[in-house]
Design goal:
346 residues; alpha/beta; Quinone Oxidoreductase, Chain A, domain 1; Rossmann fold; seven-stranded mixed beta sheet; 13 helices
Amino acid sequence: MKALVYEGPGRKTWTEVPDPVITDPQDVIIQVDTVTICGTDLHILGGDVPEVKPGRILGHEAVGTVTETGGAVTELAVGDRVLASCISACGRCPYCRRGRYGQCLRGGGWILGHLVNGVQAQYARLPFADLSAHRLPQEIGDEAAVMLADILPTSYEVGVLAGQVKPGDTVVIVGAGPIGLAAVLTARLYSPAHVVVIDPARARLRAAEQFGADVTLTPDEDPLAKVRSLTGGLGADVVIEAVGLPETFELCTTLVRPCGHVANVGVHGRPATLHLEELWIRDVTVTTGLVDTFSTPDLLAMLGRGQLDVAPMVTHRFALDDIEHAYEVFADPAHSGALKVVLSRT
């Protein structure tokens, strides 16, 4: 088969590799029908995730059709259309038993495209398939479903839920890429008073408005003054960091009110300063996290009922064989206007 192989920082190739095979009775093999590219893939290519070694097939977001099952798989069958979760879960370790699948101790967690071969390929092996792949109903299309492989549960769990968004809150989201836009969409489920989005790209701010942000700003438009004007001088109840840069994280800590929450979602490749000398006395809670995907079944149900509209996320479509060009488009959103790119089997 062909797959996108990481060859070291800044290098990748769509090339022939051996077909995946069942290596554990809990595995399934899928034909990859639809796949997308994540900002984390760009971090890998930038050298920010040193655990990813040359030779690894990239990708952790896909919809596919089961072509083979291991002997211990009971919930899936050949021919099933499934969503491959970005997180794999053994279901038995202490963390999995508490729903913290991202911290799985028995070979799960974020492994696809990271510690084992991923899904940016014509076929892929999914470990722990009964818990880590979701059978899809007919009414949910591939493009919509693949948005729930990573960005929707990540923004919802690590941003909205960890930030404890409540009705009437002022929520500030720094970064209007796919993760930030998914945070806008899922924060709106809790009826906040304001959703403020900060991003330097006007096109992405317009997208944020489409997803439900009522205030959009560039970093040059004095976000602190604007947020304080909306909140009687207090600051935001919840600030969600959706970029992964030191300066964006530090901006978040200036925008939050006393007793507020800063929820860091972005993947950081460089250290950021935590100004505890200013934050400690303000009772500010700062959270970080890797998604657990415990919310995926609920999000799929909401998607199926029409409560979530993820269609505007997809701005570009490619054939799977054109994945190297798709990476170029996705990595240059300032010129391409890309939010999420979707690649499909032709």
